[in-house]
Structure formats: C-alpha cells, structure tokens
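Re: the request from the purification team.
They wanted to know what the chain is likely to look like in 3D before they choose a buffer screen. I agreed to run a prediction and write the result into the notebook, where they can find it.
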Amino acid sequence: MNEKKMRKNKWQATIFLLIIILITFLSSAITEFSLMESLTTIPAALGWIFSNLFVTQDSLEKLPSILEKLNETIFISIAATTLAAVVSLFLALLGSKTTKVNNIFTILARFVASFSRNIPVVAWSLILLISFGQNSMTGFLALFVATLGFLTRAFIESIDEANQDSVEALTATGARYFHIVSKAVIPQSLPQMLSWILFMIETNIRSATLVGILTGTGIGYIFDLYYKSMNYNVVALITFIIIIAVIVIELVSNKIRKVIL
C-alpha cells in the first residue's frame, strides 16, 4: 500500500515538474526571453559596475546629507510600522476566532487585511501619490497601509495559535471580554507579535527606498536624484550605506528576537 502511494506521489511530482518546465518555455517564447543572451551580457554589466560604481573623495562630501535622508527613511518606516501594529491589533482581535465579537466584524477585519495586503506597496505609493503628492506623508501612508494588512493577518494567526485553556478558564469564571484579552490572549501572543513587528520594520526600511523614489522622500529620493544626474559615485555611496544600514538593523532585530522568543 505504501509502495503504491509512493509511486503515485512520484508520478504526480514528475507531472508537476514537467508542467512547470512547459510553462517556463512558453513564457520565454511569449516574452522573447533568451537565457543565453542574458548570460552573455553579464560580463559587460559587471564591467560597467566596477568602472562606475565606486566611492570617491568628492562623493564622501555628500555623506552628511545622505545620512540625514537615511534617518528620515528609518524613522518613517518605524513610525508607519508602529502605528500599523496598533491598528492591526484591534483588527486582529475582531478577526480572530478566539476573540471575535461577532461574525460581521470578523468578516470586515479580514476583508480590510486582505485588501490592503494584496495590493503591493509600490501600487499604494502610486495610488496615494495622486491624492497627496510627493511628500513624506505619502510615503508614510503607503508603508502604513501595506503593513496594516500583513500585520493584521499575522496577529490573527498568532492569537488563534494561543493556548485556549486560559481563555476558557477566564470565560468560565465570567470574566469580561477586555479582561480575557488583556490577561490571557495578549500575554501569550505578544512575543510572536513583537517578532512580526520587528520583521516588518526591516521590510519597510528596504521598501522605503523604492517608495522614496516614487514619493520624493528619504534615501530613495536622493538616490533617484543622483542617479538621474548620472553621478554614479554618489549612487555607489548611497547603495553601500543602504546595505550597511539594512544589515545592522537585521542583526539588531535578530538579537531582540532571540531575547523575546
């Protein structure tokens, strides 16, 4: 029986792999993509990078203004994530099966989370750009809305995974809804929630660079400015600073996660 099941799974996996290969070839044919041509351009691309993207003494003079924009990007990302986390917590409490108030609020909370999560942050930037123009508020709102959907879904799952014994015990004693949430649900879910918040701060700092190019704010704006003026030495410096900042933030975030989890 097990041998027959294994043979069936093997055939299913083979068929699935062949379908993926077929779709890949069809996609390449439709888009006129050539892997060999792409590979042959790599040496020229690397040559251009090494001959243009390097830091010079003149580009280092721009360092103070670059760091100022980097701070703006980091603070906008943290502020957007923090505010989104607060709103997401309320939506998650309404959307979770454990803490739901009624089915209408549950459906509404899950709809808001799904709607904001399934639209990419770049799309939100373009949508909000039309209404708010190129300013820091547009970048903040784009990160906020995209983060809201992701954290709401993550918080709902964290609450649903919490141990139900303490919730049932408090419910049996006649405890009020807010007492159950504050004493049983939040303490169990908080470490996982904090981990998700830290993850989104990392993600938003990366995304904020692209959002800044579209909204004219932060490190993305100054990157776009020097790139369009073909000042590639400053572009190289900005790129290195972004990489260093992301690595440092990730190391700090991982350290905090090890403490709280």
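For the purification team: Residues 2-42 form one domain.
Please add any questions underneath this entry.
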